[in-house]
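Researcher: Please generate the 3D structure of the following complex. Treat every line as part of one assembly.
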Amino acid sequence: MKKLINSADSVVTDALRGLAAAHPDLRVDVKNQFVARASGPRRGKVGLVSGGGSGHEPLHAGFVGYGMLDAACPGEIFTSPVPDQVIAASSAVDGGAGVLHVVKNYTGDVLNFGMAAELCADEGVEVATVVVDDDVAVRDSLYTAGRRGTGATVFVEKIAGAAAEAGAPLAEVRRVAEEVNSRSRSFGVALSACTTPAAGVPTFELGDDEVELGIGIHGEPGRTRSAMRGARELVRVAMDALHEDMPLDGDVLVMVNGMGGTPLIELYVAFAEVAAYLEEKGATLSRNLVGDYITSLDMQGFSVTACLLTPELTRLWDAPVQTPALRWGR
Amino acid sequence: MAGPDDRARDTGGTGNADGMSDTNGAGGAHEANAANGTTRAGTTRGLNGAGGTTGTGGLDAALFAAWAEEIAAAVRADRDRLTALDSAIGDADHGANLDRGFTAVAEALAGGRPDTPGALLSLVGNTLIRKVGGASGPLYGMAFREAGKALGDAPAVSLADLDEALAAGLAGIRKLGSATEGDKTMVDALAPALRALTQAVQEGQDPAEAVGAAAEAALAGAQATIPMQARKGRASYLGPRSVGHEDPGAASTALIVRALHAAVSRTAGAPGETSRRAPEGPA
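Model: Done. Output below.
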C-alpha cells in the first residue's frame, strides 16, 4: 500500500508541522504534542480540550479555533493521547473558568483523559468531562465497552464551543455538551478497510461484493458483514438503525460524513437518500454537513449522524465559527 | 495465524531454550543454560538470599532492570505478531505501542537506574503512562506503578514480596479497566499467572521455577482467550465476531511474564553472572 509519508513513525509529527505551516492562527506545540489557538486563553472563558488518536482528520485539530475547541491533543494513529499531552493542553488554555474535556467513548481515551483530569485538579485546573457515545451499532452496553463516540463529537465540539465562546460557565457548557450527545445518534458503513501506516496492509479483508455495517472509526470491522447494495439501500440500513434507537422527529441536524476515501459526489448521492428518508418520516432537515469530518484514514464508506435540535441548540450551531475545517458567520 | 501462535506456545513458560534464544538475542545462550537447569543448585546462589550477592531479600534492582530489558527485547521481536492479533479484533497498533513504550523504558533505564526494585518498577510504570497511550499504556503503567509502590524502598525483595507486588499490579489493572476474568483481556493471562506464582511460593520453589510456572500459566491463560467473546475494550464492539482470536493484551501479558522468567533465569544462572553484575554494586 502506497502512502504519502516520510516514515510511519514520523507521520503524526510531520502532519503537525504541516498544520502549523498552513494555519498561523494555530499554535502547534510539537514538543508537547498539542494544537491550540495562537491567541491564547481568554480570561473568564471556559476552555474546550479534545483529543484522540490521529487518522480521523480533520478531527480534532481541524476544529481548533474561534467558536469551537481551544486545544486538541493528537495521539499516534488510532491511539489515544497520553495524559501529559492533555495536562499540557489544559493548562495552556485555562482562562480561569475551567476546562471541558470532550472525550470519545473508547477505553484508551477514557483512561488517559481520566488520569489527566485527576492530575489537572492537582495543578489547580478545574476540569469537567463529557464522554460522547452516539454509535447505535453497539447495542449490548452491559457486555461491551459501551457505545462508541463517533460523529456526534463534531456536533458536541461545535455547540459546546459556541456556548463557551458566549461566556457560559463550566457547568453550563458541560450541560449543553451532554444534551447534544444525548440527542445524537450515528451509524457507519464501510465499503473497504483502511490501512494504517504502521501495518501497511488493510486492517481487514472485504470482498468487492461485501460491506461492513456498524463500523467504528478505527478501522475495526463492524457488527456484521453484508452484501454490497446501492446507496439507497445502504442509507436506509443506517437511517433505520438511527430511527429505531431515537425516532427522528422535528428539526434535525444531519451529517453525512465520509470515512476518508469516499468521493464527495458519492456523499451527495447518499445525502439525497438521507433527505428523502427524513421527509418520509415527517422530520425536518434543518441543518446539515456533507463531507469528511471524522475519518478513518483511507477507508471508503460513510457515516450518518443525526441530532434532534432544540431552539437553543440551533442558535448555538448557527453561532460564528472559524477553524481550519469548519467556518461560517465571522 | 497458526504459525505465530505455535511459536508463542513453543517459547512459553517451559523455558524452552531455543525459544528463549530466539527472542533474546545475545543473552540467549546464557538463558538457555539457566532455563535447562532450573532445578540445579546454581539457581539458589543469587536469588534465595542464602549468601547471595544481592542482600537478604534476593531480588534486587538489577534483576528488575533485566526484566525490563527482556520485555523490551521480547516486545520488539514479537511486535508484528501482537499487531497482527490486534488487527483481527482491534486497531492494529498494540505491537507498535508497546514497542514505543518499552523502548522508552530501556532509554530511561540507560539514563540512570533507580537503586531499589520499587523505584525501578515505578519508573517503568510512569514511563509507560507517558509514552504508550491507548488503553494498554495506562493499564500496564498502573500495574507497574502499583507493583512498585507495594515493594516500597527495600534494596532487595523476596519472591513472596514479588508475588504481593504483582497482586497489587493486577488489582490496579482490574480497578482501572473494570475487567474480570473471562472478559478477554490481559487479566485472563495475569490472574492465572499470579495464582501459579502464589502456589509456587507457598510450595517453596526457587525463583526460576516459580516464575517459570507463572509464565506457563500466563501463556495458557492467553491461549484460553481464543474462544472467549470480548466484553471489554475495542474488541467488545465485535460481539460474537471477537470469538476465535487470541486477545492481544493477554498475549502481551504472557510475553511480559515470560520475560520475567528469562530475567530471573539469567541472573540466577551461571556463576559468571555475579561477576558481570559486580561493578554495579558498591565497591
